Amino acid sequence: MEKADLLRTVEWKNNAVIMIDQTKLPNELVLVTYTDYNQIASAIRNLVVRGAPAIGVSGAFGLALAALQSNAGTKEELIGDLEAAKKTLFETRPTAVNLAWGLEQIMNVAKKGTTVSQIKNSIIDTAKQMADDDIKINMTMGKNGSVLFDDKDTIMTHCNAGALATVAYGTALGVIRATRESGKNIKVIATETRPVQQGSRLTAFELKHDGIDVSLIPDTAVGYTMANGLVNKVVVGADRILRTGHVFNKIGTYQVALLAKQHGIPFYIAAPLSTFDLKSNPQDVVIEQRNASEVTQVGDRKTAPDGINVINPAFDMTPPELISGIITEAGVARPPYEESIKKLFQANK
Amino acid sequence: MEKADLLRTVEWKNNAVIMIDQTKLPNELVLVTYTDYNQIASAIRNLVVRGAPAIGVSGAFGLALAALQSNAGTKEELIGDLEAAKKTLFETRPTAVNLAWGLEQIMNVAKKGTTVSQIKNSIIDTAKQMADDDIKINMTMGKNGSVLFDDKDTIMTHCNAGALATVAYGTALGVIRATRESGKNIKVIATETRPVQQGSRLTAFELKHDGIDVSLIPDTAVGYTMANGLVNKVVVGADRILRTGHVFNKIGTYQVALLAKQHGIPFYIAAPLSTFDLKSNPQDVVIEQRNASEVTQVGDRKTAPDGINVINPAFDMTPPELISGIITEAGVARPPYEESIKKLFQANK
Description:
By secondary structure, chain A is α/β, with parallel strands linked by helices. Helices cover 41% and strands 17% of the residues of chain A. Chain A starts with 9 loop residues before the first strand and ends with a helix.
């Protein structure tokens, strides 16, 4: 695949940031160009860009724009301008770990710099490097995972762990892309992923864009497709992986995993090492509840009566016994996970 | 519960048919009044009324209106008018078994009659009796099922097996109503039931109307709620039950049943004896595929790209080993089902 063909979520070009406006998907593929860090802050706030890795890099690019916008004459003045921009960018999604991480990386580079023009240049270089690294990690992960899939496989995926959640290429969809690039002829079944429909809006869009055969199903048809022999393997992303191999991911992942186990279908996770949380225990992880309106309406259309209760958890937990392997840029961890995850991190040091 | 409080899907009153317009739910509870059988045909065609038992009775009421509309002077002329109306009504949903059955019941009454006025009266009486019988069966089923549920239970249900799928009271929701009426304090979790959203549009509406505590979840959160101890029991309806205890019901039922088994949660079916198909084997039952647009859009809002494949089965099959009991008007069948179902039918003769 040529680099020009990549679905690139966020990119630095001619001193500007170019993003896919994800609020317009799947109906239109619109690129937006930003030259002011305040525009980046709005874009993150309004979900023009989403997905933890994509937001981390977008924050770094925001600071790079702030550096270019600055009229500072001294290093101290420039740091002051950057601190103000960092505050604005951080407050858009204060709980996103990757955003804080991306902003901090850039501030460290600025503080280590000497002259104003040298600092501006190294900020831009660092932000571009962060974006390139994200793609490289995904491509390595994809290669590591591609050996697990066979010619003529139909692969199910849930939610969007794709190019649109990263800078490009994706995690779970990166593995699917790499499998296809390795010459294997594969098909994909994408679950709709209610309530926010990342499966139909983003995954189906991405795969169709890449010319990969994709079938959309409602979340209620996971069992039917597996029971009827229509699925060979499953691969999904992850939001947090514990040292025990417990995986927190988009709501619905657990039931896909249980159904896969019941039907003898291998179930894989694809996520970079930065997704691992080696300290927490399963009971420590708080699963956030999201707005009821995501479930009671679709867009502006009301689909439930007023005055009822709604349970709308963002994530669920898949226990390690349902997981066949965890694909990372450092290799594939296999059960028992306490051991294999430790080894992955040792090998990556 | 007073009869006036019943959510009545279809009713005969003052020589007219009154229906709840289900296309307006959950946003408005609108009653429509029909005095012409052609209006009944349109209502069935346009899903103002849906659900197999409700449609069967609606067809019978349609023929009762046709009898009142007829200017026939002889029995033969009246039968001719009824045959014409029957054709119009039948063609609205030619595959619905209950519609054909409802129309046939009325034609038999007409053919056995003597004078025009006597036939008109017995048609109206028979149609009203069919509606009353539907409610009685549901209430008996409800009582039979209510003993299986405990005070403070939270009961999950899928799709709408409620008043709105029958004349009134419902099958699975009839059991829930009867449990509440027996003095037990219960709560309900309703799954959204994509793609057509009968759970959020109809079940949540019905239960809220009856003052029963209802929480709506996306179909992706079934596993989460069960794994987190939020569900004590499950009850759903059925579209077809085989002599082996294999149950065909709305897509998504199978995965709810598997998750219930995994978490030790009793899983019940509630359906009248007329739902049983004692002849077919599991592999004989063809599961219809519905329109792709149900999955790729919600109302007029497009939620998926053009040009992708869609798998949209209307039903799935739940095997008997996942089912704790089948609640009918003749009693509750327990495993092994080949035996217990046979006994139910023998007892009901």
